[in-house]
């Protein structure tokens, strides 16, 4: 809007200046007959009035409204007629073409209309000039030559400005589309980030607090049955672990942020604790090894989830955890329970295996869950390792 007003102000100044100059010229030349000078001033004032009350609102190159067909025709006919009458009285009135020709372009509804009206104006002005010269050959030639040269220049300049205006409009459209796309992308990125964070927190809660609370429930049931002091002590220990895990999540840190020994030590402690809580014999085969910190966390969480599934579904009497590290890190959790019974990772029963698969995928690993011979289930995790130069010895949480 401010650009339109700026362009209108420029046209206002130019139109008034041209009216003043034309009026001065009208009185400077010898009149053709009495009152000619005032007639020329009136014609110049008429063109100024057509501009102010008709064409002014359409003078912006890109943002002005498009005139209706009737408004366009009335404005252009009035401009051409006034200029033709003035030219027939005094050829100096051709000076008013400097405003009439641009206004023809700006009040046209299309480029085709602009060209046709400009050519029609050239013909009318050629005839008007011929009228002033009494249709002598020299004046006819001069009149048409002058008017058509002016028309040619106007068409060339109009086409160039129209191309610039079209380019500007297209550029604005592309910029608007780009801005909209960037806004959509930012919104999608924020949503994806929030979804990923919710998924991460859901995995952490499931793999830590939820499993510990499950242990507490099962231990509480055992304590209600036998009232064992050892069972009550296990409940207290599990509750303290759940409290620590909750505090860790509240401060937005990974549960792996509190170190407590190597991966092999953590697996041995996990097996011992599971055996104490459930009575299921757990054999752990894991030697000290060098594995990147993030992979250690994934492997430990997979071992926890594997034993949690043994607790909830397998009805097993024995289980084992085996860790092998070579070109990749391989963790296998095996039990002698009832087996899969047609269950799959994608069956949608619970969050555990699907969440484990997603966690493993983040580090480029794979998960395989199969029936083990002669009975039971084998859960195998394989994660490719980085180069030796990138490996670091790190501790993992309990």
Overview of the molecule:
- With 398 residues, the protein is an alpha+beta fold.
- It contains 10 helices and 5 strands, in the order ααααααααβαββαββ.
- Strands 1-2-3-5-4 form a 5-stranded mixed β-sheet.
- A hairpin with a 5-residue loop joins strand 4 and strand 5 (377-384).
- The chain starts with a helix and ends in a 14-residue tail after the last strand.
What's the SSE blueprint?
Blueprint: H1 2-28, H2 36-55, H3 69-89, H4 97-106, H5 111-132, H6 137-226, H7 229-250, H8 263-278, E1 281-285, H9 293-314, E2 318-325, E3 328-335, H10 352-361, E4 366-371, E5 377-384
Helix pairs in contact: 1-2, 2-3, 3-4, 3-5, 4-5, 4-6, 5-6, 6-7, 6-10, 8-9, 9-10
Segments where pLDDT lies below 50 for 5+ residues?
Answer: 252-259, 388-397
As laid out across the biggest beta sheet, the strand order is 1-2-3-5-4
Largest sheet: 5 strands, mixed
Overall, the morphology is rod-shaped
Secondary structural class:
alpha+beta
Count of alpha and pi helical runs = 10
Describe, in short, the structure shown.
The chain has 398 residues and is of the alpha+beta class.
């Amino acid at each position: 809007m401010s650009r339109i007003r700026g362009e209108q102000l420029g046209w206002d100044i130019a139109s008034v200046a041209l009216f003043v100059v034309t009026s001065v010229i009208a009185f400077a030349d010898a009149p053709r007959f009495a009152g000619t000078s005032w007639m020329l001033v009136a014609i110049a004032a008429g063109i100024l009035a057509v501009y102010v009350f008709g064409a002014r609102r359409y003078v912006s190159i890109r943002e002005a409204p498009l005139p209706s067909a009737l408004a366009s025709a009335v404005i252009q006919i009035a401009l051409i007629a006034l200029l033709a009458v003035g030219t027939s009285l005094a050829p100096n009135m051709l000076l008013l073409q400097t405003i009439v020709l641009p206004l023809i372009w700006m009040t046209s509804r299309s480029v085709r209309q602009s060209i046709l009206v400009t050519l029609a104006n050239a013909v009318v002005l050629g005839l008007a000039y011929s009228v002033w010269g009494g249709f002598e050959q020299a004046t006819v030639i001069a009149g048409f030559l002058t008017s058509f040269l002016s028309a040619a220049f106007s068409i060339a300049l109009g086409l160039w400005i129209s191309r610039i205006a079209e380019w500007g409009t297209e550029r604005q459209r592309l910029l608007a589309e780009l801005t909209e796309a960037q806004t959509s992308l930012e919104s999608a990125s924020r949503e994806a980030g929030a979804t990923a964070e919710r998924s991460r927190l859901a995995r952490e809660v499931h793999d830590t607090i939820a499993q510990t609370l499950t242990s507490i429930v099962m231990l509480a049931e055992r304590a209600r049955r036998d009232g064992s002091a050892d069972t009550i002590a296990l409940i207290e220990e599990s509750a303290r672990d759940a409290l620590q895990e909750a505090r860790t999540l509240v401060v937005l840190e990974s549960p792996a942020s509190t170190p407590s020994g190597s991966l092999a030590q953590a697996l041995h402690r996990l097996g011992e604790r599971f055996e104490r809580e459930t009575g299921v014999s757990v054999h752990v085969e894991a030697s000290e090894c060098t594995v990147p910190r993030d992979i250690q966390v994934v492997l430990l969480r997979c071992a926890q989830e594997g034993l949690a599934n043994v607790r909830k579904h397998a009805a097993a009497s024995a289980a084992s955890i085996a860790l092998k590290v070579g070109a990749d890190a391989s963790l296998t959790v095996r039990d002698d329970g009832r087996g899969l019974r047609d269950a799959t990772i994608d069956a949608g029963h619970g969050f555990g295996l699907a969440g484990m698969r997603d966690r493993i995928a983040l580090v480029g690993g794979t998960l395989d869950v199969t029936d083990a011979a002669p009975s039971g289930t084998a859960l195998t995790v394989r994660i490719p390792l980085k180069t030796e130069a990138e490996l670091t010895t790190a501790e993992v949480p309990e």
